[in-house]
Specification:
By secondary structure, the protein is α+β, with helices and mostly antiparallel strands. It contains eight helices and 20 strands. The strands form four sheets. A six-stranded mixed β-sheet has the order 6-7-8-3-9-10, with helices on both faces. A five-stranded mixed beta barrel has the order 11-12-13-20-14. The protein has a five-stranded antiparallel β-sheet with strand order 15-19-16-17-18, with no helix packed on it. Strand 4 and strand 5 form a beta hairpin. The chain starts with 22 loop residues before the first strand and ends with a strand. Bound molecules: adenosine-5'-triphosphate (ATP) and magnesium ion. Adenosine-5'-triphosphate binds next to strand 2 and helix 1.
Length: 374
């Protein structure tokens, strides 16, 4: 790509603005009557970063995006784009590429005209418009389909046109709200990879919304978990997954073994806990405090070990073993509790002897002390 390419993003060091591409929310709040859709959130997307809002239906993801895009007013707080407050700027002057589920293509315009529309609104001359639209369509792999109307395109191709329209005016950042919700699994995974490739090659910041945890895990530099209009936890995907702050996050992000415990000692990043019949364990501690505690261990972080150890292990019995193809899921009865253990199936016998005694162990770093909310 040459430096004169119209698709070069604003996140270019030569522009001199260190914050080009950043999005910042400061104590942003939005209420509708007595519903608080977004409850004083603070959030920063750094230049070039891929940040995902992940949360269940109604947790405030779309409302947050609409306030950043300028389609919704803030009840209070402030949004800054490229380090500058944008409260007085209408959506088209915020320089954000937007793909929202509800933000459909114009049915009577061709794919190319749909993409050009974004430039027409910005008063770009026709010859340049055409060239830039062609380039944007090529980037999303639709160079040959520019003349087709939306109804002559598949769902995935329509989403790509929407993406081309969002990229064509060199936005400083992209806002993508469930852009692939209507696509089937295969197409979805393909689009996920394409969006990541485009994002990396342009170095553009992305604020992404999904309620699909796999999608969030695979695409994001950072995941922001939302619940009831608030941010519950944020961090790198593997970090949030392995070290949830409470049982709600642990369960929302997949299967978790939650072992109720009493905290005996806390120092730095480690806690010593009494797990009742499972003995004493040493686990990771993030310092969260509450009335009741548990240790969370992901099923794939539990392993069969040859013999019991003094710490971070227990003995139990196999209740069921199920081959799921790539993995085997074992249901165990350990110290009066049901635990899940997942192991790769490659090279392993499918079923353990049912009801036979087994020993399971876990690494201290993969067991997280968390607060029990429910
Ligand atoms: N225009 C509105 N009027 C009244 N309440 C609204 C309005 N828009 C959103 N809400 C409420 O605000 C809360 C957050 O909605 P929002 O659309 O932001 O959720 P979401 O996280 O995007 O959910 P989903 O995953 O279903 O898209 C919900 O309780 C919703 O009913
Ligand atoms: Mg939504």
């Amino acid at each position: 790509m040459t430096t004169s390419s119209p698709l070069q993003t604003a996140a270019d060091p030569t522009t001199g603005n260190q914050e080009e591409g950043s999005i910042e929310l400061r104590r942003v709040r939005r209420t509708y009557g007595d519903v608080t859709a977004v409850d004083d959130i603070d959030l920063t997307v750094h230049p070039g970063e891929f940040v995902t809002l992940l949360g269940p239906s109604g947790s405030g993801k779309t409302t947050t995006m609409m306030m950043v895009a300028g389609f919704e007013e803030l009840t209070s707080g402030m949004v800054l784009i490229n380090g500058r407050p944008v409260d007085k700027l209408p959506p088209k002057d915020r320089n954000l590429g937007v793909v929202f589920q509800s933000y459909a293509l114009f049915p009577h315009l061709s794919a190319r005209e749909n993409v050009e529309f974004a430039l027409r609104m910005r008063r770009v001359r026709p010859a340049e418009r055409r060239q830039r639209a062609e380039e944007a369509l090529e980037r999303v792999g639709l160079a040959k389909l520019g003349d087709r109307r939306p109804r002559e395109l598949s769902g995935g191709q329509q989403q790509r046109v929407a993406l081309a329209r969002a990229l064509v005016f060199n936005p400083s950042a992209l806002l993508l709200d469930e852009p692939m919700a209507a696509l089937d699994k295969r197409l979805r995974e393909q689009m996920q990879e394409e969006i990541k490739t485009i994002q990396r090659s342009l170095g553009i910041s992305v604020l992404f919304v999904t309620h699909d945890q796999d999608e969030a895990m695979s695409m994001s530099d950072r995941i922001v978990v939302m619940r009831d209009g608030r941010i519950v936890q944020q961090g790198a995907p593997d970090d949030v997954y392995a070290h949830p702050v409470n049982d709600w996050v642990a369960n929302f992000l997949g299967d978790a073994n939650l072992l109720p415990c009493t905290v005996l000692e806390r120092s730095g990043e480690t806690a010593v806990v009494d797990l009742g019949e499972l003995g004493v364990g040493r686990v990771r501690d993030r310092g969260a405090s509450g009335d009741r505690y548990a240790v969370s261990i992901r099923p794939e972080h539990l392993a069969f070990i040859p013999a019991d150890r003094t710490e971070n292990s227990a003995s139990g019995r196999v209740v069921t073993s199920t081959n799921l193809g790539a993995t085997i899921r074992h249901r165990l009865r350990v110290g009066g509790q049901d635990l899940l253990l997942r192991e790769l199936s490659a090279g392993r016998r499918t079923a353990r002897e049912l009801d036979g005694e087994v020993f399971v162990g876990w690494e201290q770093d993969e067991a997280q002390l968390l607060v029990l909310e429910s």
